[in-house]
Prior knowledge:
Elements: H1 27-35, H2 38-43, H3 46-59, H4 66-89, E1 124-126, E2 135-137, H5 138-149, E3 153-156, H6 163-174, H7 184-207, H8 222-235, E4 240-245, H9 250-256, H10 262-269, E5 291-297, E6 300-306, H11 316-330, E7 340-347, H12 348-353, H13 355-361, E8 375-380, H14 389-392, E9 409-413, H15 417-434, E10 438-443, H16 461-469, H17 473-484, H18 491-510, H19 534-538, H20 547-558, H21 568-583, H22 589-602, E11 606-611, E12 626-627, E13 634-635, E14 645-650, H23 656-668, E15 672-677, H24 688-695, H25 698-702, E16 709-713, H26 728-734, E17 741-743, H27 748-760, E18 767-771, E19 797-798, E20 811-815, H28 819-830, E21 835-840, E22 842-844, H29 848-857, E23 863-871, H30 877-890, E24 899-903, H31 914-929
Parallel strand pairs: 4-6, 4-7, 7-8, 8-10, 9-10, 11-14, 11-15, 15-16, 16-18, 17-18, 20-21, 20-23, 23-24
Antiparallel strand pairs: 1-2, 3-9, 5-6, 12-13, 17-22, 19-21
Helix pairs in contact: 3-4, 4-5, 7-8, 7-17, 7-18, 8-15, 10-18, 11-23, 20-21, 20-22, 22-27, 23-24, 28-31, 29-30
Amino acid sequence: MGNESHDFLPELGNQDGPQPGPSWANPRWLADVVDSDADLTAALDPTQMRLAVAQAAKQAGKALDPKAIEQAADDSIRAMLLIRLFRVRGHLAANLDPLGLSHRECPAELTLEGNGFGGQPDKEVYVGGAFGYEWVKVGELLQALKETYCGHVGLEYMHIADTEERRFLQERFELPDEVIQFTPEGKRAILAAVIRGEQYEKFLGKKYVGTKRFGLDGGESMIPALEAVIKHGGSAGVREIIYGMAHRGRLNVLANVMGKPYKVIFHEFSGGSANPDDVGGSGDVKYHLGTSTDREFDGISVHMSLVPNPSHLEAVNPVVLGKTRAQQAIRDDLKKHEQVLPVLLHGDAAFAGQGIVWECLGFSGVRGYNTGGCLHFVINNQIGFTTSPQFARSSPYPSDVAKGVQAPILHVNGDDPEAVTFACKLAIEYRQRFGRDIVIDMWCYRRFGHNEGDEPSFTQPLMYDQIRSHPKVSEIYAARLVEEGVIDDGYADQLIADFIDHLEQEFAAAKDYEPDQADWFGGRWAGMNKPADPETARRNVDTAIERKLFDSLGRTLTTVPDDLVIHKTLGRVIDAKRQMFESGEGFDWATGEALAFGSLVTEGFGVRLSGQDSGRGTFSQRHAVWTDQKTERKFVPLGTLPHGKFEVYDSPLSEYGVLGFEYGFAMADPKTLVLWEAQFGDFANGAQIMIDQFIAAGEAKWLRANGLVLLLPHGYEGQGPEHSSARLERFLQLCANDNICVCNITTPANYFHVLRRQMLRSFRKPLVIMTPKSLLRHPLAKSDAEEFLGEHHFMRIKSDLKTIDDKKVRRLVLCSGKVAYDLMQARDEAGLEDVSVVRIEQLYPFPGEPLAVRLKRMTNLKEIVWCQEESKNNGAWFFVDRLIEEAAQAAGKPDLRPSYAGRDVSASPATGYATRHQQQQEALVASALGLT
């Protein structure tokens, strides 16, 4: 079985072949369950066991009568059960805690007495080749089981359904030639890596007394283990590793695994910037920063990148996975997932406590999100800041959540760097072969508490009394190597002295170090740039398409394959779309969107759209995926286009994880239009951490540009508090320094142009779009064919549907989104000839200059009103108020200040009563038009 078997269903998009059905089930699930205990069932069949024992006795020259054979078979069955019990529960008796504080009694079922062999250690039993034995004394078998499953590595894997995966792990664990073995050179290399990790932390502690560094002290075995990931991963086909990790040990990983020069880190510790002074941005603390580099082992070069992250625990996980998926797509590695490896380093309390961990584990076998297995490394400090494990989780291990995706778990004693390194080597072998997640749970401790300024004895005095007298990892391991004759007494001391000397040289060099370039527009981003000034960021580009392409896309969107049986309602939708192209009129929102996607794909860009119901569309409007009503075969019209790739995925029911994944994908690939769609815009607040910490601030903090698009259904239609507001006000509050673009668009053509603009500009900014619900089919929210062609482009401001001479306008109503149509219809019904409704389609960057030009032409203007559907404390009012006033001043109308028309302040985003909603809507429209 190869890892490609875990991409359960063919990718939708350019592939439209038959899908394994029915769609409610994965074809692997049932097969796995059926096979799960085949090996045990065979071993425990009494009849089969008697035959096996008789045959084995005969071959071994043992004379057994029928009664003895029956007894021997019974003994064999009990011995096989003992073996299975160790495979299932042996980890519970493993020697994992370096401090010896976690007292672990051997379970009774893991003893001879508990299995009917009390007082009979010399009894010989038949085990049929297990552990390399045919016949073995039960005492000897017990000893082998304890050494294998109860040493410094405890393996949890019997929860895995797939028989081949279990047997693979058993072989690597149980056969004599597969146990932990390193050459003398390998052992010395492990010791050197541990020493580098320890002395680096000690050096920082001396040079920067009292400075927080979230040191790795107590967990230094991770350094040689991660080097093993690079070395063995490279030999197994890995060419790129993408890391995500928390604070603890980050500076050590940057220096001793990633190869970031020590002098650069010392420069940053001294208050220096990580980037040239003219780059700008806010910067971030040094233990949030990322880097990229290349390491070479055995002639194989592996590119590595550490993704920057905020303090929010585990938030970087989906970003790493999304970036990994993008890099796999770029390398054409989506079938085997062999070349790009995600590695996530976790804290124990966060792995058990943060829900985003499960959201990411849940991606591991899902079409469109699978990365072929992630290596999870848990730095198990046995404490979360000041919280002891018994108060932090409900299960024995922090890693237990990973059992939900049948990931094997290797628990390992952090004081044994060979065991930790072996665990990483085994993890790489498993991941590369089976394409599945695997977890390493390294038990260690924090020598100095949560950070270097913390006093851990306030809350864990017994633990820290033990830690103060506990020898360092290098001391324990060096003594072991001296005893083994691998090194002499002075070897470790010389390694330490040489490394400290090197650090002193780097420390001196840091005084003169100055960064000479910013690392953000290389590789796939070559040719991109940062806008020279805010006006450049607002400048439109040519986004219209040629008639020939327009007509061709029309045929693609309206041609049903002869062998596809579509739903009758979909048939009517396609017929209506065909009529649009024939008449050149009445193009709706979904068709405008499809034209944008299709034109970009034809021009060579990728398009990736994901969300909980994105294929059909939450409001049955998109129909990007057509489903055969007889077979459930999927057909994607835009997936048949040449040059680029169109992908659409119905995502897991997650906002936080999926949005982070798509952000990571867009971070890696600026040549793919990446869009995430909320089922309702209100639900985006479930991903607020990603919005606040990554989307809005990632470029300022880490110099990481991103072109992700958020599609957030928004609009007040009486559907209640959780189905009305995408919280426009929150996005506008985040706007500064040209960091994101926020739009509330009212026409299909303008939507078409803004999507194309997103890819055709030479820079990338996140784009937040308040997408409509009722406007998806509103008779006035339509566009004509000519608006997609010729010289047309995205309009930041849209004029009134009714032509009104600017010089006659007495009252100007400014608004954005759906309410514009309510205003125009009510205005026309009232016969008002001097009231103009102008839509602000792009709220940020605010189009102050063109608005000022428009206001200047309105020579008879007496009133400016801002109208919105949202409550006064929500929506755009508090953002646009002063900006509109500034535009009026620029137009030579300093006395004009906008007034507000909309709902009153409210703690709830919207009312849940249809009648009240309608009354409020009519009142705000009347107020805006001066009818009350």
